[in-house]
What does this fold into?
Amino acid sequence: MICLIIPHYALKRLSMIGGKAGVIVINKKGRFTILHSTKYMASGYANSKGIVVKEGFPMFSKNIEKNSISRNEK
It folds into this structure.
């Protein structure tokens, strides 16, 4: 997988048109977040307390909720 550093809204737009990607997003304070637009990759972030890995984040809630519901029904 190619890793690009891009704004979080670019990943959201890519996801809306059907693209698949994983990116490292760096905010203004220099902190980073790992985000994926696919349903089978975890997303996470690191802060002073450690590393947090989650299935999805609110910015992708429409895409993540749809995928979570379909997985829970199976």
About this structure: Residues 57-74 have pLDDT under 50 and may be disordered. Helices lie at 8-16, 61-73. The longest helix spans residues 61-73.
